[in-house]
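Allow me, if you will, to draw on your knowledge of protein folds for a short while. I have a record of one protein: its chain in single-letter code and its fold written as discrete structure tokens. I should value your view on which stretches of the chain appear to form regular backbone elements. Thank you for your consideration; the sequence and its tokens are set out here:
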Amino acid sequence: MSDVRKPKVSIVTPAYNAEDLIGSTIQAVINQTFSEWELLIVDDCSTDSTREVVDGWVSRFDNIHLISLEKNFGGPAGPRNVGVEVARGDYVAFLDADDIWHPKKLEIQVAILDSNEADFVCSKMKDFTSEEDVEFPDIGEFGLESVSFRQQSLRARIPTSSVVVRRELLKANPFRELASYKAVEDYDCWLRILQRTPECIKISTPLLFYRRIEGQISGSKLYMMRKVFMVHRKFPGRSLIDAALLTGSHVIGGIYFRHFRKGM
């Protein structure tokens, strides 16, 4: 990966048994109007033909790279951390192997980061189940929101596949790879980063299209409630009562936005 031009944004995509969907995700990166990127696909010991599918793209694009892990981490935290360590860009973006971006996503987000001298940006997202339902509207004017540490504590507001964040912040605050943090490793990571930077700037129009798949871990409400409680209980300075109240707020907000608004 010692090629010519240093990218401004390194995109990290953890992949596991994603042979059927990862092609659409890669195409969404290639379709970006912003061109200063590298795509790092970190394969977590897939047992299907994910590596072969990705190799086909690698052979055609010199800014797409496959990192084949020798051991399975059992979740996306480890592969994301591996990608961050290899990343050469000033910023790191995350994109799961089944999600899709609006073609102007990186262009808009990098401009916001540069013009605001910011470290951390995300966008709203929209759910989809079939790619036929994904439409990319023209983006004219859009609003910006600020997500603070307190707001993120009350409810998850930062969709991971929409994030672009300064690489050094991630290196100082890696995703926790413990099995107990699986499915909430990103929520915990964003909280820790928001202790170090004043805000995450959130674009109030969906630039991420999040694929809903039956049986997703994040779809189990009781499982996620227990995980969120664990994050708050272990977070420095939080009491049992704090953890319970914040978990309740998180669950209520999650039900409203994820099941009624179909987005975040």
Remarks:
- The chain has one domain: 9-218.
- The first strand starts at residue 9 and ends at 15.
